């Protein structure tokens, strides 16, 4: 594993043995001065996992259980990733989103219609209220690091070693430790959840994303009610967002209120996603979240972010883990209706592909409460809620 490359801000070395050329630095945006309605989230320190004090470990597990079963979100610190590394990775994000011409990226578009995010997702391919989306991202999966650099734009290739090292460390160190904590929450052996994730390739079946939200016109904001990404859940097990200063992320609280997620230097914002919700029978909550227009003092800045989507093995069927005493006692079978009809729960790969295919093309079937923006669609026997 390339741990040292991740923890050091020094540019990586290319396969040809030449240092990467310098990139324009990512200029750290100032935090907003607007008085936003911030959500209160728990913070856990990964270093507590190795504490020799039983009380520290018990507190870690207890607080994690409460946060992930009630809010579905928490802050994680003690990751071992320096601020310099995060800023370097965001400089690479800036290069991908703003420094590589659209014409060059056009030949490396992700096959969304086939259920895959790998590669480039250009902005402007989805539409809402007559307004095209402002979302752009480039996604890396294990095949992205198979040595075939021709699958990436030429202007991106010099930075692949750094990207690979960062993705490797995030998956094999940060994700693994978080899954160990969640295994303890479920009263399972420490490696129980990690064993459900692939250890093949750099990041298994998971995904490392470099993403940008481009500013929009006031006219477009009014048409879409300032919503950049509608209220949704993620499709994987856990999602990791490396915190950055531009406020835009909101979560739907248990009280059905949208609240802002505040920036924390050096923290990773972690949320439960669909697959973990299914595996725990709903004991751990996949919380609805959305992205909206940043406050006025940040609204003209391109919001650049790093996200890691940890996914279970593609062939894993998303049935509840009844070997967990917590799930057996408190879980509700997410796919009982399908099983009653003689069908089965989907695998992680099936669920992921179907959700990706539908993204931007959802077929809503019902408005639950007029005025609250909540709609639903059926996906592989499961009712999926959105807020539009």
TrEMBL record:
Keywords annotated in UniProt: Iron, Metal-binding, Oxidoreductase
Pfam families (UniProt xref): 2OG-FeII_Oxy, DIOX_N
Coiled-coil regions listed in the entry: none
Lineage: superkingdom: Eukaryota
Sample GO molecular function, one term: metal ion binding
InterPro entries cross-referenced by the UniProt entry: DIOX_N (IPR026992), IPNS-like_FE2OG_OXY (IPR044861), IPNS-like_sf (IPR027443)
Residues in Isopenicillin N synthase-like Fe(2+) 2OG dioxygenase domain copies: 208-310
Domain Non-haem dioxygenase N-terminal: 42-143
Similarity comment: Belongs to the iron/ascorbate-dependent oxidoreductase family.
The protein's name: Clavaminate synthase-like protein
Organism, scientific name: Guyanagaster necrorhizus
Lineage: Eukaryota, Fungi, Dikarya, Basidiomycota, Agaricomycotina
């Amino acid at each position: 594993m390339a741990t040292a490359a991740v923890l050091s801000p020094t540019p990586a070395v290319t396969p040809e043995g030449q240092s990467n050329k310098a990139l324009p630095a990512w200029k750290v945006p100032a935090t907003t001065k607007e008085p936003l309605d911030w959500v209160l989230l728990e913070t856990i320190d990964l270093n507590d996992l190795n504490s020799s004090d039983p009380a520290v470990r018990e507190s870690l597990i207890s607080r994690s259980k409460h946060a992930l079963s009630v809010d579905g979100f928490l802050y994680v610190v003690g990751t071992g990733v320096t601020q310099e590394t995060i800023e370097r990775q965001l400089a690479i994000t800036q290069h991908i989103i703003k420094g590589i011409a659209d014409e060059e990226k056009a030949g490396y578009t992700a096959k969304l219609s086939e259920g895959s995010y790998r590669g480039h997702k250009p902005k402007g391919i989805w539409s809402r209220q007559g307004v095209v989306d402002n979302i752009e991202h480039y996604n890396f999966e294990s095949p992205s690091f198979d040595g075939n650099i021709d699958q990436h734009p030429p202007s991106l290739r010099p930075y692949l070693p750094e990207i690979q090292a960062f993705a490797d460390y995030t998956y094999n160190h940060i994700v693994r430790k978080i899954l160990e904590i969640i295994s303890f929450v479920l009263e399972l052996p420490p490696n129980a959840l990690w064993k459900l994730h692939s250890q093949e390739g750099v990041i298994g079946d998971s995904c490392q994303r470099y993403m940008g939200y481009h500013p929009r016109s006031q006219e477009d904001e009014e048409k879409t009610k300032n919503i950049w990404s509608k209220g949704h859940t993620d499709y994987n097990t856990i999602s990791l967002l490396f915190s950055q200063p531009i406020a835009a992320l909101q979560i739907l609280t248990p009280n059905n209120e949208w609240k802002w997620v505040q920036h924390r230097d050096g923290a990773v914002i972690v949320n439960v996603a669909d697959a973990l919700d299914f595996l725990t029978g709903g004991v751990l909550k996949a919380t609805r979240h959305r992205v909206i227009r940043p406050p006025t003092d940040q609204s003209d800045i391109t919001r650049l972010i790093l996200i890691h989507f940890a996914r279970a093995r593609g062939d894993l069927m998303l049935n509840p883990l009844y070997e967990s005493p917590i799930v057996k006692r408190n879980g509700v079978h997410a796919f009982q209706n399908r099983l009653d009809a003689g069908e089965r729960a989907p695998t992680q790969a099936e669920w992921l592909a179907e959700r990706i295919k539908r993204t931007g093309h959802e077929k809503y079937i019902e408005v639950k409460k007029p005025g609250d923006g909540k709609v639903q669609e059926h996906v592989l026997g499961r009712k999926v809620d959105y807020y539009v």
